[in-house]
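Notebook B, p. 112. Complex prediction, attempt 2.
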Amino acid sequence: MMGLASYLLISLILFVAGLVVMIARKNIVAILLGIELILNASALNFVAYSRYVTNNLDGHIFSLFIIVVAAAEAAVGLAIVIRFFQIKETVHVDEATQLRN
Amino acid sequence: MFAQLLFAMSALLTVGGAIAVVVTKNIMHSCIFLLACLIGVAGLYATLGADFVAVTQIMVYVGGIVILMLFAVMLTGGKDFVSRAQNLLGLAPSMGNKWTFSIAILVSIVFLLTNISLIGNIVRSHAPKTFGNDYPSTVSQIGHLLVKDHVLAFELSSVLLLGALVGAAIIARPRKQ
């Protein structure tokens, strides 16, 4: 039951769920949730390959840096969301048209 | 046996949490299901022998990012944030329904199993090698790798975090028009 394939399957489900959330949701915070799901899928893949294929710890290092980048991305993204809410009074993604023409 | 139990519950929590994030309408409930999903991923890390990554996942994601997301949801709720009054068996109002309670029980069991697995790894890595030591602790090896092979990425991540901190503070600062 515990093999590389099952971890890859779980990671695939995580990735697809994140992609669906990013495409289907209209709330900007929900889109950030989808990004977190996708980053987790990639980090899980790194650790699974590190355990079952390469047998060293480089995948763990990659996974830790993915967590660092995800933390930075969440901080900046949520700051942008809060600033956008101060301007537009909504977090609907279709209202973000300030950069158009 | 223990690892398979932890793997099964973590996989169930991860997949169920991810699907629930997709299908839930309420964004606050989506954040809570994302928390369950991330704890499940930490359990999967524990089954893979990545104890330091599992602990970092729980600390950074569950303790930091999801809480930040919940604050952002609450700060940007506005008019389209719906809150429905739910109760458990009519006993306590606004305490969640049986689904949230079952998710919470599953989360706590996986969290407990993850912690037991990590503590078991630590005990086994300090014990003499008389019984199966298939998962040695990875903390010292990760520390050596971070300051020897990957030291450039390590230092650059500190610059990245400082930039993100300053940038987030500048962007979210209220401005006088």
